[in-house]
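INFO  loader      accepted 1 record
INFO  loader      residues=134
INFO  predictor   begin
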Amino acid sequence: MPLKSCLVKDYMSKTLVTFKPDTPVLDAVHTLVEHRIAGAPVVDDAGNLVGMLSEFDCMKVALQAGYHEMFGGPVGDYMSKGVETVNAEMSIVDLAQLFADKGYRRFPVTDRNRLVGQISRRDVLRALEVLSHA
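INFO  predictor   done
INFO  writer      dumping tokens
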């Protein structure tokens, strides 16, 4: 099977750590550290993607704690909005080009704004490895 025929849906993670906008950000920080992940999607009660919370976003929490002795608040105050997403039907090759162009580590995978998975650069490499041994 050529790499061009591999799709995002074949390699994306479907079981994800997610947060709600009202999740306390310090709980989210704990979850990121505990699971050793660099970020997670933020979804509303209907499962629609509303943002992403990354380690980078959490630096704002550390700065507020250090300078203003303010600890926390809801994830919605710290998350990145307007997140770029990919479709599950996108080819792995097109995704590899997007990763090369954007420099992101991961993309949420959505279907009509509903979160259905997440795909990372490592998943693209896994697809390449699988196909090279087929």
